[in-house]
Amino acid sequence: MKKTQLFFALAFLWCLSSQASEGKYERLILKADKFYNEFVYPRAIDLYEKALDLKGDFVPYPALQIANSYRLMNKPEQSENWYAKVEENNALTSTEDKINFSQVLLKTGQDKKAKQLISNVEAATQTDLGRLKSLDNIEVFYSDSAAYYLENLPINSDQNDFSPVFYDEGLVFVSNRKTRRLGQSTYYWDETYFLDLFYAPFEGDSLGAARPMSTKLNTQFHEGPAAFLENGEHVIFTRNNFHLGQKGVSEEGVTMLSMYSARKNERGKWDKPAPMPFNSEDYSVGHPAVAPDGKTLYFSSDMAGTHGKADIFKSTYENGVWSAPINMGDIINTAEDELFPYVSEDNVLYFASMGHPGIGGLDVYKVDLNDTEPEVINMGYPINTTKDDFGFILNGNIGYVSSARDGGLGSDDIYRVNVLEMDLTVKLVDAQTGKPVEGNIAVEDQADGSQYESQSGALEGIRLLRGRQLSIAAAAAGYQPASEVFNSATLAKSVESHVIEVALEPRLAKIDVLLVTNPGRANQVIGLGEQLTIYSDYTSLKTEMDKQYADVGELYRLESIFYDFNRSKIRKDAAAQLDGLVALMKKYPAMNVELGAHTDSRGSNTYNNCLAQRRAEKAQEYLIEKGIAAARIAITYFGEDKLVTNCGDGVPCDEVKHQLNRRTEIKVVK
Asked: Of 484, 483, 441, which Cα lies nearest the Cα of 461?
């Protein structure tokens, strides 16, 4: 009896203890959630971990919250560890969590695992997230790796330093380094100091010591990226929504980012900043950039009407008023964040995004605002890495970029970007005499499609990034057309300028034909189109040497038709060769052809087959536009199945060998 009573007493105490433990766990989770929702991630993590320790066994919710906290604090390695624990316990179930995990994996260099995760999400949701294409062709982002040289700057601290902008023969940038300012407080989000604006003057090729900007601009709250106009007399910058001593917050209690404007007074000092008209307590606006015209403002915002998260907007200054913001559209903006815009002197917009195909994290992209059909281009490695890269600016051959890449002094560092270019000149010369030839030259940069032309036999002033290739097509009266590919990687690194000589072979004035006459008579050579009277049978013979019928099954490889990597566009040099085929088919109306398109081995088989199909279709469309009936043109596409070099999957090859595989072949079928 006593044993039974003791058993029930112990069981009762265990139940009380269990209930108390469960109550403590729930209180820890509630408190942790409060800190999480207020962006106080370090404290939230601490409480979630205590809740897990209290439980003893694995619990998905706090583990996932820890993973999300580290992700939002931009600590991908720690975040990956916790996401992996959730996945190992079969608790990574929501689409959003899987996408977030894939972004973390890209930042830590786990491309294959990220690809598999995204593929699973797309299959389950029957949606295209737009990420697999970039992961299948990740090497395209490394093609310009020889074109830039990056240096870590001496102005960097062990904290966050980012988003530089040119100002007063120096740089203004954002930092949360410790200063001597009294009462410098820390930010609850990650318990680091608040962000301020700093200035560092240029000293030769380097920068001098950084110092805080005016206290009229810097406050006890966050100050962020800035833009200067009117020769540095006017600044627009980012700040927490704080005006007239009051913090503006949304209905959810979140302090939004806003933009403020200040001008220098007659004493050269900054006046008190005033809020920009776009500010709101319901959404954020920030990261200003001013175009070369001095009156067009670009900025990032998550206001209503975005394509997803934060988009790039623009506003113009007219009659003393900033116009209503205009969304830059879906060419630039995606369902993810577009941030940190900057407009160069040649009106090229640079910005950071997580929504366009990239290497991982935030990548830097550019788009030429002068183009009627603008295209967003990833700046590639080494400007972009698997970590966050953003805040890119450029002046001539010198630029700066902010990056969280490995090897920095702090979480985010500023790097000087040296653009490695060379000056090229293309000249036409006679292949036999070496003398200059007057004729037409068409040149195209294989990487970005930039085109240059000349009708004088010489083309000067081509600026080419080191490591890139040029497609060159040339034609001159009395000479055979020529085309070639110039690879700048073959030149020594010290070469800053180079002359490319394209040797043209003279056309043959006549084709010699050897006629063998009756035995005992002398042989005689006659030219094409000449007449010869054969006296033995009094026959007058005219030598018509033109080939009237093309041989069925004969294969013509258009060696000079080149394709840019990952593109199907018909370039000018390729168009010239296709024009020759048009002339041939018009000369022989009964002639039918088959176009066979091929790719190199980079990318998946499925993707390469689709790319080859697009290339064949583009060539077919070109011939049809030139007047050739569609019924006379068949197309086939082989992807990477018929390589002409040994550059298969996993075989290291230079770009020249890959180029040989990117070809179109033409076969006469009738």
From this structure: 441
